[in-house]
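Example record

The entry below shows one chain as it appears in the dataset: sequence first, then structure tokens.
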Amino acid sequence: MTCQTYSLFVLSVIMIYFGSFGNSLSLAQLQNDIDQLKADFNSSHSDVADGGPIFTEKLINWTERNEKRIILSQIVSMYLEMLENTDKSKAHVKHIYEELYTLKNSLPDGLKKMKDLMDLAKLQMSDLKIQRKAVNELFSVLQKLVETSASLKRKRSQSQRRCNC
């Protein structure tokens, strides 16, 4: 499977994933539209497989529903960017673009979250001023962590009580 074909396959997966929640998507029509888009991009070309998949590999590491929605938001944005430069006078391109745009509006703004992660990765933890600030915030960070883990334990114990296994 070529890289472009794989990319379009991921687009299909995204549409199907959200179709199961959104009910507004006509998956059969989208599959036909995506098949036409594959033909437009000549996605059966042999070089598409070089380097492996570009999106599905990333999705493997994102397991929680909210996490997936963040990464899918980014992927949908990338598809919208790709389709921005295509001929939207073609009905299938226009339909896919409109569906992706609708999906994008139903997703959280992953760009802000991604920027936060990138900003954290850029922090110079060897800088004394950064270290001082970090130490100053340590207790608050640990409190947030404890709150989060306590909330997860509560959810787990509630679901265990409901189960009559």
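Notes for this example: The first helix runs from residue 3 to 22. Residues 3-108 form a domain with the Growth Hormone; Chain: A; fold (CATH 1.20.1250.10).
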